[in-house]
């Protein structure tokens, strides 16, 4: 009877970790949605709310980490149980980083509000952010159900985010070459775009943690990557006045 009690108690502890991840994930989803909303609406007050709420996500991460470490010490889990605890620890860290990027977007939104809009760049970022939002929702659902098929779908969608980021990177470089006066605004937008792209990477990391929980190893196929921004070069337009 004592052994059965211990097992049930451990199951309850694991379920509590899952619940903590779900709560933290819900707040991260809301932070991202509000950060993107503040960007497209140029809403400084909302952006400040996002920045202020980041401390709640940090506190949730700390709580999950402490509970995970306590479980490792008290239960000394092995095999799949050990993977469950480690994955909760890692997933909390991934979510905290996504929250940091949402905060960074909000901070730059405050600066962008002092500058004129740049074409449809904000809408492009929101479109990319929409893909990331669906990835985060999908991977949180997959985490709660240990659904590796859903987790694999999230991994595959990361290349769509990469493609959108690369496209926007090219667009903003072109804007800056055409008009040096907008370099400041474009630079902030470039950082925001990269923040959103990195969120997709962290959602993909969580998908891989799910794979580890279920199968005990990382996915056999490497994650597809389509971010070509590091290799992007936009040539300056030729100066006609120098001819002849």
Describe this structure as you would to a colleague:
The protein is mainly alpha-helical and 244 residues long. It has a single domain, classed as Phosphate transport system protein phou homolog 2, domain 2 (Methane Monooxygenase Hydroxylase, Chain G, domain 1, Up-down Bundle), CATH 1.20.58.220. Helix content is 80%, strand content 0%. It is elongated, with a radius of gyration of 21 Å. The N terminus is likely disordered.
Please specify the SSE layout and strand pairing.
Elements: H1 2-41, H2 44-75, H3 79-112, H4 121-145, H5 148-178, H6 183-215
β content, as a range? under 5%
* Radius of gyration from CA coordinates: 21 Å
CATH fold description: Methane Monooxygenase Hydroxylase, Chain G, domain 1
Q: Secondary-structure element sequence?
A: HHHHHH
Q: Uncertain regions: pLDDT < 50 for 5+ in a row?
A: 1-5
The biggest beta sheet is recorded as:
none
CATH architecture tag: Up-down Bundle
Indicate the percent of residues in helices.
over 70%
CATH class: Mainly Alpha
Number of strands: 0
Structural class: mainly alpha
How would you state the average pLDDT, rounded? Answer: 91
Q: Output the number of helix runs.
A: 6
State the end-to-end distance: 95 Å
Count of distinct structural domains: 1
Query: What's the shape?
Result: elongated
Look at the structure and name the CATH superfamily: Phosphate transport system protein phou homolog 2, domain 2
